[in-house]
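re: that complex we talked abt at group meeting.

here r the seqs, copy pasted straight from the sheet so there may be weird spacing, ignore it
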Amino acid sequence: MKFERYGIGLIKGMVVTIKHLLRHPTVNQFPEQRLNMSRRFRGNELIWSRERCTGCASCAKTCPQGAIEIVTATNLADNKYEVQKYQVDTGYCIQCGLCVEVCPYDALFMGYSYERAKYRRGELVQSGDELLESPQRPASGYFHPEIAEKLPKQTLLVEKIVEKRK
Amino acid sequence: MAIVNFMNNSPLPMQVTPADWPGGYWWHWVFFTVILIVFVLVMVMGAIYIERRGLGRMQSRLGPNRVGPFGLLQPVADAVKVLLKENIVPNSADKVVHWLAPIIAFVPAMMIFAVVPFQNGALLADLNIGILYVIAISSVSTIGVFMAGWGSSNKYSLLGAMRNVAAVVSYEIPLVLAVIGVVLMAGSLSLNQIVLKQDIPFILLQPLGFLLFFAAGCAEINRSPFDLFEADQELVAGFHTEYSGMKFAMFYLVEYGEAIAMSAIITTLFLSGWRGPLLPPWLWFILKILIVFFLMVWTRTTFPRARIDQLMALAWKFLLPLALINLFITAIQVLVWPDALPWILIFINIAIMVILILLWSKFFKLGWGRIEV
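got the structure back, here u go
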């Protein structure tokens, strides 16, 4: 005899909802409360290091979207091979992380930030110094375990409920 | 005062107004009218807040929490927003009917409170046919809803309104039959008398009656799980699809005003109204209303919406026979053992309720569904 057929199912459902009422809700009040991202988060913007970049253009070749534009030239005065232009169209970027993996000199990182929306599409095209690491644009630990170690541990919404329930 | 006393020919001496009440009948009338309007408006705002927060928390969300402390001012903000909105009347609408519908729907929801006692004798008019008046008035609201559906000249509105009429006609019967059980126990139709008779809340003596009345009441006032007259997903909000601005606000007010009215009636009939220890009577009354309303919110968030055939089947195959049996049993109890010990009756009635519900669930075939035992 299945008691679900006799109105017990209704009571079971009501017990579930009242349990939800009594526990902490599964939400995060975003601007006031923030959850830590995954340490290997592939965030909004690419971070580029001018010092380490040799201008090999592996990143530009591997990019499936063709979002990276790199122009290199020989500086005859210093007799050096240097990057004249390094430009990323973040609007095209699909956050695949291939450029970071392919870079032989660890000059590229994925971004750890996620609130980097822009008002104009033109602002998405970033080049040169805009791409350097800064407090607003920290580097993510993706493909770089040494960075990941220093980042805070990821927090989950579930842990929030569990800690309130104790 | 004279008219009130004339209508009140109950055997017990009734305290309609305090003995030192100044001004007599008209003062009484003005005082209670103002009190009732303020009461309904404030309670509706509170009800909207409780419903939205309660629904949110039961769905593991927070609900409105931005406007004011704990989001308490959210109903106020909503009211201001909806009052400032443009009032759009469709070109092909029946203009007069479209205008009148919200008012005709709202007035009965207000009028129900005229006979609901807040305290011993503290009510606008202590009619000796109080509960009959409530049932008669509350079904007038449906006309407003049907006018809204008709006047909008919109097929979804009309469908919603037709469903509403069908449901109210069906659910009125178990509703009234459940009320008759209480009336038999109390021996009076006056709500104040019914409260005075409830030394034990009638929910214990009439558990089945309470369940029937609650279900039928929820269907009557378009509360979920029977809210398919204003089902957003299938009927784009049903009869008030074409309403905006102030008139939409009126319908919103009706929805919650009726919910509060139904909670007040349930409180009066089954939860011994304003009676209770320690706290003042009116506070007990409001507290019980809020408890019943919370129960409505709870069922709303838990149960999925019924189909129209399931709705009708529930009314005619489940509620109506059970209401008739409940009435029969109550009549026998009142006739044969008028002085029986209450706790024996409570035990018997709860046992009868459980047996009947189990039995009828077995007979009951929901919308030609499969039956597994």
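couple things i noticed - The domain at 1-166 of chain A is CATH 3.30.70.3270 (Alpha-Beta Plaits). The mean pLDDT of chain A is 86.
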